[in-house]
Amino acid sequence: MAAALDFADKAYFSQRENGAFVGNDPARGPWSADHCHAGPVSGLIVRAAETEVGPEKMLTRLTVDLLRPLPLAGLRVAAETTRHTKTLATTRVTVHDLNDALCATASTMHLVRRDLGPVANVESTAPRIEDAVDGPFPIGEIRHELPGFAHYSDIRYPKGGRQGAGPKTVWMRTPQLLQGEAQSPIQALCPLADCGNGISWNAPTSEMGFMNTDLTVNIHREPVSDWLASDSVSHWQTSGIGMSQSVLYDTQGPVGTALQTLVLFPPG
What we know:
This protein is mostly beta strands. The protein has helices at residues 38-53, 185-193, 196-199, and strands at residues 13-15, 21-23, 57-66, 75-84, 88-97, 102-112, 132-134, 154-158, 168-173, 209-212, 214-219, 228-236, 241-250, 253-265. The protein is built from 3 helices and 14 strands. Strands 3, 4, 5, 6, 7, 8, 9, 10, 11, 12, 13 and 14 form a 12-stranded antiparallel sheet that branches. The protein has a two-stranded antiparallel ribbon with strand order 1-2. Helix 1 (38-53) packs antiparallel against helix 2 (185-193). The chain is globular and about 50 Å long. The protein starts with 12 loop residues before the first strand and ends with a strand.
């Protein structure tokens, strides 16, 4: 895998005057030159839900069902409130392509922010960004020759950490979600959250494919750093069904978890 490109001024998406989101090079997924990686699209879903609910409540759960490929050529994202109380809010979000085909649906939960002062909590050992070392993107295979998601992701591994098959921890720093707009902390978390299966694969793609059909992210604290980490493991079964589970971190400690349901498919 080539070194990451300079993405200081390169966002995942640009927005047209008609509201459609057009994918830039960083949003391109590894399997098709014409379709998005689902992580940045999940960021668009979070953006729509956060705009719908407002800043007084924090998004604490995102569940995305991926129904068909997500074209770079253009996506429309719409959110509607399904419940809103003093304590919580929920939304339903849809993603359509420019031909109005439904590509993804999502639901979100948002909880009101309060200031409780100090509370009892567990001590959790977190990876240290200070000890991390540069490394390759976790998946080496790309089925096209155009720049994409992997090229625009800075990657680090814990010093001495695993870089082959199996469970592993990866630090990632990614571009802005939308050209000309500051992203929220949870929007910024989405690209990494959708990488659990690509981080923790149990065999290379030449031996077994592993596509996720959904993504569920639970967040208990908004991240505060540009570098974010995922400690991921995948479970593959002879039924052709699998699961990836990840604990997500910023530089201060854990912020949430991510789950993906996987479809396994042998090559050929």
